[in-house]
Amino acid sequence: MTMTTATMASPSRQPDPARTVASRVLSVLDAFSGERRRLTLSDISRRTRMPLTTAHRLVGELVAWGALERDRNGRYQIGLHLWEVAALAPRGLGLREVAMPYLEDLFVATRQHVQLAVLDGLDVVYIERISSHDAVGVHSRVGGRWPAHATGVGLVLLAYAPRAFQERYLGRPLAAFTNKTIVDPDALRRVLAEVRRTGFAVSDRQVTLDAVSVAAPVSDAADEVVAALSVVVRAGDPLPGLPMPGVVPPVLAAARGISLQLLRHPETP
Asked: Which residue from 68, 83, 157, 240 could staple onto 119, CB 3.0 to 4.6 Å apart?
């Protein structure tokens, strides 16, 4: 049965007894996204499918703890305390601290978007980005997710993922964002094999028709690929003194530098 907005927003509906308090709290936090950064209490009630009174109580507790904050217009947004806790995630903080000097060097060399991402489920999650105000526009953001098959970092992470994971990913429908997005599983298998052969990936106008991403893998002390970094440049607009083929060596050098640091500090995830 399809639930209408009016049904979902009805304050008379009863709480689902099968849902734990923890699941309800998490659903409140999950109601927020990059496109929905500020929500009213009614928005939260509707998106979580909880009665308004229940949503009000949980939101109040989250505000008291600092997971949510209320802006001057009465809408709610993610709170600073939650950000502080999330920053302790080892795949975020540890990698970022090790990688940051190399990301900065790569940015100085290219003056383009430099990004660091990890694989989480079937998506890539960006844990750092350095940008120039005159660089090509991108849809990625720190903390944001993107389907792996369309991005440079995602192609790298898929290429070095276990074969069973690759097949599970390729067995699902692949979203197309431009007419250049690779959505054929066999074609994508060939691309991933080429990434493993060369050690880098190029996502050519797969997300937007004006951007090309060059990415390389970052390995930990166990020689497992744990992240990928990329430079995003404008399609058909080589960097001054650094044409497209010249973008690959600095990307590979930065990735190797981060990997070497992770080798020296095996306690960093």
From this structure: 157
d(CA 137, CA 120): 24
Which segments of the chain have a pLDDT < 50? 1-15, 241
Q: Token pair of 268, please?
A: 């960093």
User: What pLDDT is attached to residue 141?
Assistant: 73
Percentage of the residues of the chain whose pLDDT score is greater than 70: 81
Tokens 């209490």, located at residue: 41
Task: Give the per-residue SS3 of the chain.
Answer: CCCCHHHHHCCCCCCCCCCCHHHHHHHHHHCCCCCCCCECHHHHHHHHCCCHHHHHHHHHHHHHHCCEEECCCCCEEECHHHHHHHCCCHHHHHHHHHHHHHHHHHHHHHCCEEEEEEEECCEEEEEEEECCCCCCCCCCCCCCEEEHHHCHHHHHHHHCCCHHHHHHHHCCCCCCCCCCCCCCHHHHHHHHHHHHHHCCEEEECCCCCCEEEEEEEEECCCCCEEEEEEEEEECCCCECCECHHHHHHHHHHHHHHHHHHHHHCCCCC
Tens digits of residue pLDDT in 160-184:
999 999 999 999 999 999 999 999 9
Q: What is the pTM of this model?
A: 0.68
Note whether 260 and 268 are within 8 A (CB): no
